[in-house]
Design brief:
Keywords: Signal. By secondary structure, the chain is an alpha/beta fold. It is built from ten helices and 14 strands.
């Protein structure tokens, strides 16, 4: 009887251990599923704006918001700069056959506000919003679109023109082609200046997914000696962003800028060819600048403009926080939006937010309130 009783106790203990192990496994699985659920929701891409608290609350030099209402005003230029009419914005833009083929396919359409967009329509809408913001902030400036000769673009807006440049505009080579197009364009400007040297026009080369929210003429007025200006951030691997490049319109500055970009293109084509689809241009920019022994890269850590001579080219470095500010994705940015921000860059998965921002501005006509919308909704992914 003792043997049987001992056997029963052993079976009971083994069964208890199995049940407890199974119970703990189920509890752990349930716990992990709860932990993963918010992560999945965080990565979810929304088809509408989701407003949250605006970063930078309580900081005197940051935009303060209550919902989409600005509690303080951005330092927008009250008077138009004398440089306004002598500035031309340049962007590279092309249309791919795959986008045109989707014109009749409504299954992939995206709704933004009261409008429905296919892939082609989304691209054109973003280009038009890019132009619209420039017309609001700098109504006397011009826009030139560098594009593939085979692109059938139609942009019926005042002070906007197309400039066709032959090249390789495939997605894999577009960033390389962009630098080539910039160089070709600058060469044509040099030729025109040789015929009329008094016709000075300054140039700002940008991505087409930016919003100019303040007059940029002060760059050329406040910094009269630079040849070419770049925007920087505190990022060790990629401190320079290629989405905003300013060039003074004098013959010497254009020539120096052309030579600098030719050096960037050379480095891009040799050292970073594998990154030709994206990032290679920024890596090449950083290499050309940081490879100079006298250059102090620690200055990228402070958001203060500074100048440096790079092989005879006078470079002006402008902080991204003002001239290339990007809405945060996730909780990565806690310092909010500077009051004197000039340019908002809707790169990556922020394209919908660019269209939503223009729609909001069209109904409110208030830049500061629109910036609150951007600041409050920049914590969610809004890709098309």
């Amino acid at each position: 009887m003792k043997i049987v009783s001992g056997w029963h106790r052993l079976v009971f203990c083994l069964a208890s251990i199995f049940l407890l192990t199974h119970l703990f496994s189920v509890m752990e699985l349930h716990k992990n599923s709860k932990m993963e659920e918010p992560h999945k929701q965080l990565n979810k891409k929304f088809d509408h704006l989701v407003l949250g608290p605006a970063a930078g609350q309580g900081l005197s030099n940051r935009l303060q918001c209550q919902g989409t209402k600005a509690l303080n005003r951005t330092y927008s230029s009250s008077s138009r700069s004398a440089e306004d009419g002598s500035i031309t914005f340049i962007t590279v833009f092309t249309i791919y056959n795959s986008s045109l083929n989707d014109v009749e396919d409504k299954s992939t359409n995206t709704i933004v506000g009261n409008a429905s967009y296919n892939k082609f329509g989304r691209s054109m809408a973003l280009l038009n919003v890019f132009i619209n913001f420039i017309e609001v902030a700098m109504p006397q400036s011009n826009v030139i679109i560098l594009t593939d000769p085979v692109s059938d673009l139609s942009v019926p807006q005042n002070r906007v023109s197309l400039y066709h440049i032959q090249g390789e505009y495939s997605r894999d080579k577009l960033m390389l082609q962009r630098i080539r197009s910039y160089i070709t364009f600058l060469e044509t400007r040099l030729q025109k200046l040789s015929q009329n040297p008094r016709n000075i026009t300054h140039y700002i080369f940008t991505d087409s997914d930016i919003a100019v929210v303040d007059n940029l003429g002060q760059i050329f007025h406040d910094h009269p000696n630079f040849h070419l200006a770049l925007t920087f951030r505190n990022n060790k691997a990629q401190p320079l962003n290629s989405g905003f490049i300013a060039v003074r319109g004098t013959p010497e500055a254009i020539l120096r800028a052309k030579h600098f970009l030719q050096e960037v293109l050379k480095v891009y084509s040799t050292k970073y060819r594998n990154a030709s689809r994206m990032l290679g241009d920024q890596l090449a920019l950083a290499w050309v600048v940081k490879s100079k022994a006298h250059f102090d890269a620690s200055r990228f850590a402070k958001a203060l403009a500074f100048s440096e001579d790079i092989d005879g080219t006078s470079l002006l470095f402008l902080p991204c926080s003002l001239y290339n500010w990007t809405p945060p994705e996730g909780a990565g940015q806690f310092h909010g939006m500077p009051l004197d921000v000039k340019v908002v860059h809707f790169k990556g998965s922020r394209k919908r937010l660019m269209l939503e921002s223009w729609n909001f501005y069209s109904s409110s006509l208030d830049i500061s309130d629109m910036l609150c919308l951007i600041l409050g909704s920049g914590r969610t992914k809004y890709d098309f």
